[in-house]
Amino acid sequence: MNNANGILFVILPESREKIPVQINRKRMKNCRLKVHADGSVSCSVPYRISQSWLAEFLEARAGWIERKKEEIRLQDPSDTIEKMPEIRDGNTIWFLGEELRLSVNQGTANKIYRDGEVLFIYFKEPGQQEKLQVFFERWWREEGIKILQERIQTWYCVIEKYGIPSPKIFLRKMKSLWGSCSVTKNKVTFNFYLLKSSIDCIDYVVLHELVHFIYPNHSKDFYAFLESYMPDWRERKMKLNRRSY
To answer: Which of the listed residues 43, 150, 213, 215 has the most CB atoms within 10 Å of its CB?
Structure first.
């Protein structure tokens, strides 16, 4: 840990990432440590606090900083990318980590199926854009629930031995969360747009939420347990947050 132009660097205990902490000296009585929405970290301190004391204080709080940064990484506040494109012939959409071309056709029955890199959509009224969009999003939701149920069952064995019943699954559009769980209601809610990403990233979110039924917070035990079943969770998380799709 060193100092330069009001910056102290601290090494996070789990990831071993070296991060800067902006130091702001003010007329105040207590220290105030904050992890901001963009992931940056600042610490406001009284003028009288020494550099050595401050270094020890930040080192002791490194675990807390890492947990807060992890929460923010999982809760990307940007909702500009997470939009469903217009369902029109020739447009593309990401589904399970692959970019598919939409082939919209008039049909006697409404149906959707995939063939290679093309997603075929047959609709009785393809010119009715709003109705077509509603139909497609209903299909997306139904497919998403089926896929997430499969992934939950794949990873359920991790928590089943602790006497936790298989949770109910919900899918909804969220601006800031990839997933959330309610231990008391025994349910997990996933982001509608998570289905754009690849299965390995989906599995990370699924396991992350399941582990919360054992460890409700982001403690060291939570991450140790997560890593014991998914050693590469950091890489999967980074891939998801980069929106590799």
So the answer is: 43
Encode pLDDT of 130-172 as tens digits: 999 999 999 999 999 999 999 999 999 999 999 999 999 999 9
Burial 209-235 (b: 16+ CB within 10 A, else e): bbbbbeeeebeeebbebbeeebeebbe
Q: Is-contact 21 10, C-beta < 8 A?
A: yes
pTM over 0.90: no
Please list the residues that pair with 11 across neighbouring strands.
Answer: 18
Q: What is d(CA 218, CA 67) in angstroms, rounded to the nearest whole number?
A: 6
The set of residues, in sequence order, having a beta carbon less than 8 Å from that of 32 and lying 6+ positions away, is 43, 44, 45
Burial class from Cβ neighbours inside 10 Å (0-12, 13-18, 19+) for residue 121 reads buried
Answer for the pair 110, 135: CB distance below 8 angstroms, yes or no: yes
